[in-house]
Amino acid sequence: MIDSTETIEEFLARHASDVEEEIRRAAATEIMPRWRRLAAHEVDQKAGPHDLVTDADRKAELYLTEALVALLPGSVVVGEEAVHANPASYEALRGDAPVWIVDPVDGTRQFVRGEPGFCTLVALAHGGTLLASWTYAAATDRLATAQRGKGAHLDGERLFAGVPEPGRDLRVATSHPDYTTDEQKHALLGLRTDGVAPRSCGSAGLEYLAIAQGESDATAFSWEAAWDHAAGLLLVEEAGGAHLTLEGEPFRITGGNALPFTAARDAATARRVVALLAGGA
Questions:
Q1: Tens digits of per-residue pLDDT, 78-90?
Q2: What positions belong to coiled-coil segments (predicted)?
């Protein structure tokens, strides 16, 4: 627990492992017991048939909200399900308190289908700056972490995104068409060109992890929800990657970004993807 004289950096030095433990507990208690065992009454729609929420999402977020605020008194939580219930709570990202950004089950559609392509995402930010992140793929028991200025790691091993292989098509995960406007669809058409191999994304958190591992080259996403992007953006940054919006500026978790935006293995690839998106817009 942080005291009144401790900085957030000092808190992380002492308690990053405690955060990890709480994320693992949330998954073990509220998520994995429901994986491949969901009853029909445990799955609901939010905005439509492609926007699902389950009891695992709700209960894991409640668990993490209580646990993380207890670890860091004075902090607040911006969680996907809480914001759905009260959109005004998203404004905490622009406030003065440290903010935990939580997506309890990123990749809910995959979770509902009984597939392993989902994860729990937690990031800690202050003043709009991402300071630490955790990406936990419970089905495969992989944990990726990042702290600003201290690198990115997967199960304790340092991650380096590297650069795309010369002569190989860029592997780019893009927003699913269900989540794009007509204008964004047109921008994404810029990726339908020689030298690029776009595909629809799965879990955003796992797409960011694939970039940090050098298994994918870039993303092209058309929505801003901080819980989908915060953990992964810091992971990619600390693995040596970069992110840019359509205006060529780094993505801001506080919003107001020109979309679509990209995260990529290196700055040159990020610039290339943004140029293609701008050409298609």
A1: 999 999 999 999 9
A2: none
